[in-house]
Amino acid sequence: MVYKPVLILAAHTGAAKDFANRIYQKLANHKNGCWRKYLLKEINIDFHPDKEIKVEILENVREHECYFIHDSSLYPQDWKESLLQVNDALMISDAAVINNVLPYMCYSRQDRPTGRTPISAALLAENIKSSGAKRVLTTDLHNPAISGFYRGISFENLKLGYTVLIDYIKEKHGDFLKNAVVVPPDEGAARRTSGYGKRLNLSSVSIEKIRDGKTNEILEMKIIGDIKGKNALIVDDIVSTGGTLCDAAHILKEKGANSIYAVATHGVLCKDKYGKSAKEKIEASPIEQLIITESIPRKDDGKIKIVSISDFIGEVIKRITHAESISELYEI
Ligand code: R5P
């Protein structure tokens, strides 16, 4: 059987271009039993004058396995629409297998109805499936149960927190870890935080938020556990407006925490309804460093440290294209 080269595809402009190039370099220079060939190709993704999205596949993709590395720094609506149109264009162009690499899954916080609201994460899954994708690679989903919306195609929810982020913290912040506890900034982060605690061998301290029964407004925050004189590592999956993280940091400091670091996979880092940015809040908070991945492409900036994931994603693609295990990556 003759295997055609695997195509690594990204938009010709934008942040994913450099990311895709680094993934490609990892694959092209892979030593460990890598017998597939990989080629890096660009896709034209642009806008018509009226702002409709315009996609064009510039080269032959017929019968090639294609990995489209999407840019999660796009506005969610553009992200979704351009993804669907790229898949459609690849399908029309006769790609053998369409793989979507979506390091950050937009709409993952809209995963259940809350009153008269859509299940946007399920709608997105339906759209992606019907646009021709046969596999989706994403990372640290806000709710792992979202994978169920992708029934019928292959789906990988890669664990970046428990691999690249934990490795980074162990390597760079050994002294901090000697006297540290992990802290979930809210109840939703408890499970993920205990996963970090287990892997870093740290105990957990939690924050109880006492809310007004009618308005849901936070009336008081209490620390459950011993924080005085300890270093705190706040763990979350997403930092959006930064409110959850910074509120936790302030109360931890007030109750006597020593150094405060925070870690999360996805740095959405947007403005809140008052126009205040997550970055401004983090810079003004007691957090000494926020460690996030490049699942949404960014550069180091002030207290915000970006950890690269291109080698990890490259390794995953290598394993898929060689029919090797991905879960073994978590056992190394
Ligand atoms: C929510 O459940 C997530 O895990 C994060 O805690 C949340 O998205 C953070 O949002 P923000 O940064 O706007 O407080």
Fill in the keyword field for this structure.
9 helices; alpha/beta; globular; binds ribose-5-phosphate; 5-stranded parallel sheet; 332 residues; 14 strands
Helix content: 25-40%
Strands of the biggest beta sheet: in what spatial order? 3-2-1-4-5-6-7
Q: Helical element count?
A: 9
**Total strands:** 14
Which range does the strand content fall in?
25-35%
Radius of gyration: 21 Å
Question: Which blocks of ≥5 consecutive residues have pLDDT under 50?
Answer: none
Shape: globular
The average pLDDT is 96
Write up this protein:
With 332 residues, the chain is of the alpha/beta class. It has 9 helices and 14 strands. The protein has helices at residues 16-28, 76-92, 120-130, 161-172, 174-178, 190-200, 243-254, 278-284, 310-321; strands at 6-11, 38-47, 53-57, 65-69, 97-102, 135-139, 154-158, 180-183, 206-211, 218-224, 231-239, 260-267, 287-293, 304-307. A 7-stranded mixed β-sheet has the order 3-2-1-4-5-6-7, sandwiched between helices. A 5-stranded parallel β-sheet has the order 8-11-12-13-14, with helices on both faces. The model has no long low-confidence stretch (mean pLDDT 96). Bound molecules: ribose-5-phosphate. Ribose-5-phosphate (R5P) is lined by residues 186, 188-189, 236-245.
